[in-house]
Please model this.
Amino acid sequence: MTHSKLFARINRMKKRKDRIKEASRTRSKRPKGSTAGKQIHHSEPDPWKELRIKLQPINKAYRNFKEKRRIAKQKDERRRLKNQEEQRLREEEAYRLKQVEEKRIKKEKKLKEQRVKRLKEVEDLKLKEKKIKQDQEDKLKQARIYKERVLRAEKERLDQLERVRKLREEEKELKKIRTLKVLSNLKDEKELRDLQKLKDEGKLRSKKEEKILN
Model:
């Protein structure tokens, strides 16, 4: 029996009960008659008893219905509480997972930043070492160039000194040659003068001898 049919049957029974109550009140208002009337009244069945007897299965069904409804409400409440608890647990688990994920992302971000920092430090160190090496090579190159320039300048100075020395030697040789030439010329001139002097002396002697002879 469905709930709607049960409620309709209960309503009909209530209406019938109201009619019986109304009839009882009407009978109770009647004046007391003869003994025959009383006997007839006593011989009538008790409608309330019959009603109660008839209503027993309905009341039982109604009580069962209320009990079932109460049990259903309890089940619904337990189900609601269970769902609420499951929802709370899901939300807590979701929050925990969110926290774990955020921690993981934060940790990965931190590790990535550390890797980037280490790579940057390594790159900076490489650039610094490269710069130091380049500076050393530049210094060595400059030192080599300076040394080559010094050696070239020293060689030029030595070559110049050698040229000066040779020029001086050549000048000495030229002076010596000129001196020799001068001396040779002087010697020749002296010899000529001596020879001329001898010639002149010979002429004088000849003249003297001629004068003597004359």
Observations:
- The chain has three helices and no strands.
